[in-house]
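Quick one: structure tokens for this chain, please?
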Amino acid sequence: MREDFSAAATLAIRKKPAGTTMSKDYPYVHPIAVRFCDTDTEGHVYSGSYFVYCDEALMGLLEDAGYSWQTLAAREQAIYYVESCCSFLSPTRYGDRLRVGTVLTKIGNSSFRAEMTIEREQGDEAVATGVLVAVMVSKTKDSSTPIPDGMRAALQAYVSD
């Protein structure tokens, strides 16, 4: 039976307990400086930009684990996102400083699930939560392929229940 990694299956995204810090709850934290081009005509961050922030955080985590997109490309491998979702909690604006806490909650044969909380750098206010489900792909076959053992071992450092 196939495991369900879908965002819809477990949309209860983790919430940071009061009195804790993002670095304790999330094994990888990525800084974001909101750029003017991230905003819409209303002056707040356009909803699609939050998906970019989640992508930047997950790519940063992979690079931190030793598996940057350049490393994967050299091995004729890639990461494809097969599902994503984002819940918007509070508006952000040009010039805001954010951080994206990222944790892996499931690692399967060829896919993994990342959950993120985006919060203000000052004040720890959560502004959005997100989920990305990624699949390891063989670029030569253009189909899913098992996550290599070395990568799987490196990703375990970022896993939490």
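The two ends are 21 Å apart (CA to CA).
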